[in-house]
Amino acid sequence: MTFKVEELFKKNYALLCLVSFSIVKDKDVAKDIVQDFFVSFWNKRESISISTSFEAYARKSVKNLSLQYLNKKNKEQRMFEDIRAEDSSSNIPNDKQNNKLNELVNLLPEKRKEIFLSVVVHGKSYAEIAETNGISVNTVKTQMKRAYAFLRSYRKEDYIAVFLLLHLFSYLFQ
């Protein structure tokens, strides 16, 4: 089956955004999910075998991607809540821990640090940050993923960093 992806995109984009939005309840996230679906579809177009209509295939795929997004978001939320609960039973971070945390955050590239702090400290949405900085929501997502990956890499190497991250989240979400 030969696919003309551009035609499929034009014909199905709005419907697929509605499918995703009905699950994630965020217009920007829904658009990103549908865009990710089409990028993935494009990359795998030679090997995909669809036994139903493209619309049925796309709806099911977008629904699954949307549910995966919610699962990931819920896991992250539970992790933050666990960290906050665990940390509320311990003492306030000391100056040494705060300095180490500041050092780690300051090692991030300037724009990534700015985006990270906007999300974590100021509670801004990805869409707000994207609009303010004239970048796409996907760019904000990518920068956040890279910032977390960087901080996690230090956590793996240094047990103290685990405590720093715990204190960071408790400090930022009080």
Determine the mean pLDDT: 79
Name the poorly predicted regions. Answer: none
Shape: elongated
Count of separate DSSP helical elements: 8
What is the C-alpha radius of gyration, as a whole number of Å?
A: 20 Å
User: What about the largest sheet?
Assistant: none
Q: What is the string of SSEs from the N terminus onward?
A: HHHHHHHH
Structural class: mainly alpha
Kindly, what is the distance between the CA atoms of the first and last residues, rounded to a whole number of angstroms? 55 Å
Give the helix level as a range of percent.
Answer: over 70%
Number of strands: 0
- Residue share in β-strands: under 5%
Could you please describe the fold and organization of this structure?
This protein is an all-alpha fold. It is built from 8 helices and no strands.
Keywords:
mainly alpha; 0% strand; 174 residues; 8 helices; elongated
List the helices and strands and how they pair.
Blueprint: H1 5-24, H2 27-44, H3 54-88, H4 95-106, H5 110-120, H6 126-133, H7 137-157, H8 159-172
Helix pairs in contact: 1-2, 1-3, 2-3, 3-8, 4-8, 5-7, 6-7, 7-8
Summarize the structure in short.
The protein has 174 residues and is mostly helical. It has helices at 5-24, 27-44, 54-88, 95-106, 110-120, 126-133, 137-157, 159-172. The relative contact order is 0.10.
